[in-house]
Amino acid sequence: MEGPADPLLRKIIHIDMDAFFASVEQRDNPALRGLPVAVGGSSRRGVVAAASYEARAFGVRSAMPSVTAQRRCPDLVFVKPRFDVYQSVSRQIRDIFAKHTDQIEPLSLDEAYLDVTANKQAIASATHIAEMIRADIRRETGLTASAGVSYNKFIAKLASDQNKPDGLCVIRPEQGPCFVAALPVKRFHGVGPRTAEKMAALGIVTGADLAAKSEQWLLQHFGSWGSYLHGAARGIDNRPVRPDRIRKSIGGERTYGEDIWTEDGLRAALENVADIVWERVERAEGQGRTVTLKARFADFHTITRARTLPQPVEGRAMFGQIGQALIDQILPLHNGVRLLGLTLSGLSRAGDEDPPDERQPELPFV
């Protein structure tokens, strides 16, 4: 099997906290330790935001309806989320990363890519850096993290999931193609349940099955994503770690225990959602021109309304005003609203340019 095409290999670490939200709750409340814990609402319309490993043993997963989770695990303990605490711990972890490199690409509060090819402490071994980071996280936060170490982002992320929880997996360049070939494609980042079903219908179950297909065939069946899949199946991924990566959109939504039937109630609910979303926008230092309102009614019918400005939205007040104007478009209410969301998209930073895909000097990998 052919190996990676890039002769000048990066050293990439993917850090993924173990059951992050649930682990923080178990850390802060010793009575929860060893119990199946779900972070989220326990109401009929609640959704699991995170599950402890004890809960996962019963098949409880994030994004699962709370009623389903309770059915699978009758002893499940529900805990309300404390996002301010999770954000604070995430900043602690980010500070640990920054001891080693500024090339940090956060994916969420609990995971990030790090490029340590040229690191602050001039440590030759990426594996050693990953071990140091995991030890510092445990000592400073009382939590565990799993790490994947490899020569590109795609394989590093796969590797971090290989020995969870509290695990470390190193995939060297010569091992990459065989490692990918043996994995089911449903493990690949970006391959969701529907794509996995489509691939299975086309005879693609493993990485080896994917690697057997030509790039032209993959482009025909998966569009422009086919080129990425063609390289990934061979252990190739030339994407750089992007420390200044801006999300294309930032949003938030809330599901309500009781349907909202009145205009005043709907407008008050929108202001609450707008506060939450704008805090995220400010934290990301982003600016965007499109505001989208999402409303789901009691019968699960969902509608969206959007407005795009010729210039970026200037501040929380304007963001809320546009949201309220979008509310006008769905009034009067003929059905109760069970979910309300608001999103700012078309995000950028003033003066942003994509950084060049620079080649790092080759160093011993581990």
From TrEMBL:
Instruction: Return the Pfam families for the record.
Output: IMS, IMS_C, IMS_HHH
Quick one: where is this thing mainly located? Answer: cytoplasm
Name the InterPro entries for this protein.
Answer: DNA/RNA_pol_sf (IPR043502), DNA_pol_Y-fam_lit_finger_sf (IPR036775), DNA_pol_Y-fam_little_finger (IPR017961), DNA_polymerase-Y (IPR050116), DNApol_IV (IPR022880), PolY_HhH_motif (IPR024728), Rev_trsase/Diguanyl_cyclase (IPR043128), UmuC (IPR001126)
Q: How is the cofactor bound?
A: Binds 2 magnesium ions per subunit.
Cofactor(s) required, per the database record: Mg(2+)
Keyword Coiled coil in annotation: no
According to the UniProt record, one GO cellular component term is: cytosol
- Which reaction(s) are listed as its catalytic activity? DNA(n) + a 2'-deoxyribonucleoside 5'-triphosphate = DNA(n+1) + diphosphate
As recorded in UniProt, its EC number(s) are 2.7.7.7
Keyword field contains Iron: no
Could you tell me what this protein does?
Poorly processive, error-prone DNA polymerase involved in untargeted mutagenesis. Copies undamaged DNA at stalled replication forks, which arise in vivo from mismatched or misaligned primer ends. These misaligned primers can be extended by PolIV. Exhibits no 3'-5' exonuclease (proofreading) activity. May be involved in translesional synthesis, in conjunction with the beta clamp from PolIII.
Q: What is this protein called?
A: DNA polymerase IV
* Species lineage: Bacteria, Pseudomonadati, Pseudomonadota, Alphaproteobacteria, Sphingomonadales
